């Protein structure tokens, strides 16, 4: 939270944030497209994923057992209450999508309290296309859904988690490209692991009175965090830092 921002300053930061977000999103989309073959379900689970082509993968059995155990832990209980996971698992494609993370914040002033949906523009939930957190919540809320629909969505979420767990090089590569990948939980989805990709560029949420003022002007109950300009200048370059460390260890004088 930042208590020093003004409305005028916020407008300028919002424009900057949108420019930066557009650039960073474009980069992330390119990187994920390039990495997509490594994130196919069959690249890790092999024959445990249904296909007309037999594709045996080293470690596939262990990966499936890991996914099966996680499924029993998070999917067999509320809010999902699904039956046991069996192989082969059916997939509906391996294309990826990512959406900005949102959370609810209770903004408070001396005279008012307002529930605000806050968007983190440089932090995204990553999923196989059509099976993100929003879709899962929609399925849980739909009394007319089929059990198979919910089962498929949960399976795709757990498949991505398993694939990334088994592909640590992908995580390291994204870190080298200035993106971090973590596992988190989402409101209303129990213990289901959600993959989160974040830019190293920090964002901040202003003071509550400014948030409420902004939402009243816009006529909505949503607010987008803005980039923290002061922290951008202090972003660390891991590659340079490692080179300096090696040079100093070799007795070289470094500024």
Q: Summarize the biggest pleated sheet.
A: 5 strands, mixed
Low-confidence stretches: none
Estimated structural class: alpha+beta
Q: Say how many strands there are.
A: 7
Write a brief structural summary.
The protein has 255 residues and is α+β, with helices and mostly antiparallel strands.
Verbal overview:
The structure is a single chain. The chain has 255 residues and is of the alpha+beta class. It has one domain (7-249). The chain has helices at residues 7-35, 41-45, 60-74, 133-141, 147-165, 168-176, 208-218, 229-232, 238-249; strands at 96-108, 113-128, 179-184, 194-199, 203-204, 222-224, 226-227. The strands form two sheets. Strands 1, 2, 3, 4 and 6 form a five-stranded mixed beta sheet that branches.
What's the structural blueprint in terms of helices and strands?
Elements: H1 7-35, H2 41-45, H3 60-74, E1 96-108, E2 113-128, H4 133-141, H5 147-165, H6 168-176, E3 179-184, E4 194-199, E5 203-204, H7 208-218, E6 222-224, E7 226-227, H8 229-232, H9 238-249
Parallel strand pairs: 2-6
Antiparallel strand pairs: 1-2, 2-4, 3-4, 5-7
Characteristics of this structure?
single chain, 255 residues, alpha+beta, 5-stranded mixed sheet, two-stranded antiparallel ribbon, 9 helices, 7 strands, 44% helix, flat
